[in-house]
Amino acid sequence: DGGITQSPKYLFRKEGQNVTLSCEQNLNHDAMYWYRQDPGQGLRLIYYSQIVNDFQKGDIAEGYSVSREKKESFPLTVTSAQKNPTAFYLCASSPREGDWETQYFGPGTRLLVL
Amino acid sequence: LAKTTQPISMDSYEGQEVNITCSHNNIATNDYITWYQQFPSQGPRFIIQGYKTKVTNEVASLFIPADRKSSTLSLPRVSLSDTAVYYCLVVRRQGGKLIFGQGTELSVKP
Questions:
Q1: With contacts defined as CB-CB under 8 Å, which chain B residues touch A101?
Q2: In this predicted structure, what is the pLDDT of residue B94?
Q3: What residue of A is the nearest CA neighbor of B101?
Q4: What is the distance in angstroms between the Cα of B88 and the nearest Cα belonging to chain A?
Q5: 3-state SS, residue B81
Q6: Cα dist. B77→B16, B73, B74, B110 in Å?
Q7: What's residue B108's pLDDT?
């Protein structure tokens, strides 16, 4: 069953804590993306990776970090430097490097600050 | 990339045809028009994409006039399960980002 999985579905973070959101895909896609969505808003791009071992900052990268050591995995770490981390986080992938227009999204992780 | 403008919300009834219009006055020659659908607490799902004239698939139709400054997503005979947010995006091939606006919140009533 091909697709994108994100875990956990809900995540709670304490003040000053780093947390890591998982994103895995078995679609053999080259490119992967992380977005943040706030209530009633569209998605904003955090980071993206077009190939393994390479990634670029999106529009709101401050307070976040990523890695792309394997093609199928693109974890996102929300660091303590991110002062307003409560949001819905969405991971996506697309088949080829530069193929932005058709992205496949995971089910999302909702992050809440305690 | 061209900014898009679409209605914040729309209401409809089951069985009706719904048309959501998006304006993108500054669309460039190598930009495509793409629509996504998002249900609550889920990731967006690609619906349809077009460059000009009309595109139809099993889910929707997309009408794009000759000047390409607007587009209309048409959902035939909607059901309650079509209640969702619909995003209109202008995407540049080969290197263009997906820029999501607020979208149109469609509410389908019985």
A1: 32, 34, 49, 91, 93, 96, 98
A2: 62
A3: A42
A4: 11
A5: helix
A6: 5, 13, 10, 12
A7: 97
